[in-house]
Amino acid sequence: MTSLSIWCFLCRPSLELLDCLQLTEHLNKVDDTGNLKFTYETEESGSIPFLDTLIVRKPDGSVKLLVYRKATHTDQYLNFNSAHPLHHKLGVVRTLLDRKDKIVTEQEDKKNEEDHIKKALNTCGYPNWAIDKVKKEKEQPKKKTASKTIEDKTRANVTLPYIEGVTERVQRILRTHNIASSVKPHTSLRRLLVHPKDKVDMDDKTGVIYEIPCHNCPKTYVGETGRRFGTRKKEHRVESEKRMAQNYTRAARKDSQSIEMKSSIAEHASKENHLINWDNPTILATDDTRNTRWIRESIWIRRKSRPSMKESLMNSDEGAFQLSHVYDQLILRASSSSDDVIPSNKGSNGIYH
Asked: Alpha helix locations (H) across 273-314?
């Protein structure tokens, strides 16, 4: 059974400490399983924290609210000089000012909190104009937005990696075509330095576009699978070795070459009498979504079969997705400028060997 965390706050000055102990013990006896636990916290110096609110008792018995920060709080926020879009940084300012307006109850305390926020943000590189810009926006009355039309609800939305100076231009172009866009960080310290998961063995990878080379010629085979790569490679190998293990007369071999096989790798090995280099496959890209994985496979087949690499593939078709030849020049240009793989939705940055 999952244990529950219950927040219980009693604001009763006349309740003595002994009464609090007795009440807590009584409440904890209600649940025989022990999964429901009540605790209490006493005020210190006339104040007590609750979540991000500090409740302060005034001499006249009334209370006022302040923003609560732990003793270990560092006032470290998103640095203004970091590679994030401007509206993300302005969002930090807006969040802190909104919290000040909604929690702090007295005007003098609000001014002190605003001074604290401004000092902390200046330390994080925020210029005064950024803080003033958000304050001005907050002071302006909010316009009532009309309910979204069917066109607004159904229009396309794309997520772009943020590259300063580039993403903004792309967003402006998309807006002219009524395409909404959002951004996400492209490179972060976590992505560069932290690898919480163990490296997955190549044969255990799923949702991959792969390449298997021939041992006797430059030809390769490009394919995709949503299953374990090791399982798909084994299927290719079993069929290839099954065909190669059969003994043929000249006439029988000639007849067998006219039979279309399920695997283009097996067909190449049988017709050319070549060995397949099973020990050196390559994972070109990873993608868990079948439709986009099919598109990636077709792009890779088109890249590998460009004019400068004619007759370089064992593949007998262009993949599961019928990619329009409209994209040929774009694929050719990308192939000639770089050999890096297409970025995948698993965060792969390069080719696995």
From this structure: 290-304
